[in-house]
Amino acid sequence: MLLSFHSTRMQSLQVDSVQRWMEDLRHMTEVECMCVLQAKPIGVEEDSQQGELIVGSGVGAGDHVARNNLQTLLRRALVVSTELGKMFQRLEKGRWQRVHSTAVRANCHVRSLVHEYSAARSTPPEMQKYEKSLLEKCMELTNITERCLHTDDEFFLKSMREAIHEILTDVSDSFSNMIDMALANEIRVLIKQIESSDSVHTIGSAISNLLSLTQDGPQLCSIIAKEGAVVALFKICRQDRFKDLYAHALRTVASICCVEEGINQLDKVDGILCLADILTDESSVEAARAEAAAVVAQITSPHHTSTQHLASFLESMHDIVTALIKLCESASCGEVFLLASAALANITFFDSMACEILLQLSAISILLQACKDRQRVDTPYSKDQVVTILANLSVLEQCAPEVLQEQGIERLLLLLGEKPSSASPSEGAACERVQQKAAVTLARLSRDPDVAQTAIQLKAVPRLIELCRSPTERNNSDSVLVACLAALRRLAAGCPDSIEAADHQQLIKPRLVDSFLLCSNMEESFV
């Protein structure tokens, strides 16, 4: 009996131990082993029999190492950030076993990252200070979380939670600063390659790495800008011997200029003059001019809060606008047209002089002709840019006769029927903008009696009524509804007989807000 009890108790203890080990195993990894496994290539290419861990010689090897350092750094940083985020969540829930196991994992990952980076690159002195402090805090975090496993004292655990939260915040801040320094160090290496090399291949590879980094968000773009990448890239764009790199360099500049620091750097090196030179140079390839247009579109975006750089832009505006409308006219594909027209659309928002220049350059004819060419205007995004320009031009009185001459009212009615070809939310949003701006343009142009009469003859009124009454026709957009109601009221003011009594009673006679509320609650078309 005693033997049986002893045997059962031992079996129970063994099961409990195994279960405990299995539970711990789910949350623990041998980080050093994982590092080696992650660094090993799955397959070995013929020209690289030694694998990725062996650094070759020559230019190609240097490019590979720079790229590999960046990728490893970013991958490791993401892992550590994820672990620290988990710790914050588990700490709030008081899951102490999970808190400790996550602290151990984070500590291992941080040490591994520091070790890997130090082995691959000489660490700057200021970064070494952060590394030492960070490693000490990670060890402190591991030790203090372990103490919390061996007590059930609520008062003690509460005080420990506050202390751990403070240390964890310090670790997060220190880690973020260290990664920023490491990335800045890597970026400086790339910029040095761009500035000091005469090899098109080496410079091109460094630019590719910078461009890849810009895709990781505004924070990295800010670091890249602060390290002087925009200055280095414009130096390339001012040398004829690197003409083949212009498009690549400008695409990277456009990405960096999503942040204010990038635009400020561009302004300091007279980047706008360089862009104007490339755009107006007939010997420049289309790809370079298209990417220059992309930079113009980026720096003139209404989303930017700073407008200081636009002062220097105004000096070159006539040349830039002229070059952009020519690029729209000669574009060989939809992407080139989209970049050029997006730049023009942004420019027409902030200066009425740009609209006057465009009218002088027969922009209305060029844009409306482009809409008939599916090779150039092939998506709702391109149509959005075209109708934006037309909406801004329609503020000028002399715009109406040109639109009539080019059969622009017919085009606007077609744009009022724009519908997405897929379930993509971005495409749906673009279609809504096209419909809204087409209605706004029609309303503005209908101040001219000839335009209003033409619109009515082309059955604009039934279409506008359909858009007001049928939510599905306007992609369930309230902004399209408001624009259509405004256009309908403008036409009704000039030609009251064009609206039937029932429609007048619901869509014209009430206050705009009342008609809006009536139409926005309709689920089926009454047409």
Q: What would you say this structure looks like, in words?
A:
- By secondary structure, the chain is mainly α.
- The protein folds into 4 domains: 63-182, Four Helix Bundle (Hemerythrin (Met), subunit A), CATH 1.20.120; 197-269, no CATH class; 280-302 and 309-396, Leucine-rich Repeat Variant; 399-526.
- 75% of the residues lie in helices and 0% in strands.
- The chain has helices at 2-26, 31-39, 59-93, 96-120, 125-147, 154-196, 200-214, 218-226, 229-237, 246-256, 260-268, 271-280, 286-299, 310-315, 317-330, 334-350, 352-360, 363-371, 380-393, 399-405, 408-415, 425-445, 449-457, 460-469, 478-494, 501-508, 512-520.
- One of its GO terms (biological process) is asymmetric cell division.
- GO terms for molecular function: cytoskeletal anchor activity.
Tally of contiguous helical segments: 27
Uncertain parts: 1-15, 26-62
Work out the radius of gyration. Answer: 31 Å
For the record, the count of structural domains works out to: 4
Multimeric organization = single chain
Distance between the termini: 90 Å
Number of strands: 0
**Biggest β-sheet, characterized?**
none
Strand content: under 5%
Shape: flat
Portion of residues in helices? over 70%
Class by alpha and beta content: mainly alpha
Which H/E pattern describes the elements? HHHHHHHHHHHHHHHHHHHHHHHHHHH
Arithmetic mean of pLDDT: 83
